[in-house]
Write a structure and sequence with these properties.
Layout: H1 8-59, E1 61-62, E2 65-66, H2 69-73, H3 75-81, E3 97-98, H4 102-107, E4 111-112, E5 130-132, E6 150-152
Antiparallel strand pairs: 1-2, 3-4, 5-6
Length: 168
Amino acid sequence: MKQSGVTLLELLVTLTILTILASVALPFTKVSTKRTKEIELRQNLRVIRAAIDAFRLEWARDGDTLIGPACVKNRLSCKDVTGPYGYPKSLDALLGVKLTGEQATVRGTTIRRYLRSIPMDPMTGAADWRLRCYRDPASVKDWCGEDIYDVTTQSQELALDGTKYREW
């Protein structure tokens, strides 16, 4: 009578092969997770920076000289929401600027939005971006509080390519 089944040796060989495959796959999942966060960070930085640039185009000013079309039409709002160079005073200004000029009264448009919400920093898990003013050098550690020219992550970690996330 012939019995079918798996011998102990075959079972041990199979388990050994599975263990080797799992130990090879584990580092790839860690790299894959980090790469996903890096892609999300780049996208979020791109979204915020594009919103800052769009804001600057419309609300541009040079000191007390109002240059941008939205700034000229909404003089009262302009100095409340922009710094001396036309960049937003806070990230909240990108969520909505209350218009005070003819657009608000004639067209019924009362708020100009550049972002629906402030994106999260995937490296820190919060919307706690590191801010930089227009007049600050790229290596500055403290935000001057005057306007927002650029944002970077608060993370001190290194990227897969060896650069610091903070320098992106």
